[in-house]
Amino acid sequence: xxxxxxxxxxxxxxxxxMYALSLSLVGAKFTPLLFLEKLGGTASFFIKILMVLVGxxxxxxxxxxxxxxKE
Length: 71
Hints:
Blueprint: H1 3-25, H2 41-63
């Protein structure tokens, strides 16, 4: 896959996870992720945290180079 696409997917995961977490702190719900609330409070919280972590991981891995520096 293209590195730019992976970066955009990482940002979408990160931002939607952070948005859902911040809304859950004030008691509101993020409508696209409403199905997570049916799993229970703890499970939905950990899935949102996982979304944030996977998003950061995707961004980090897509922006690092795997090539050896040429001399």
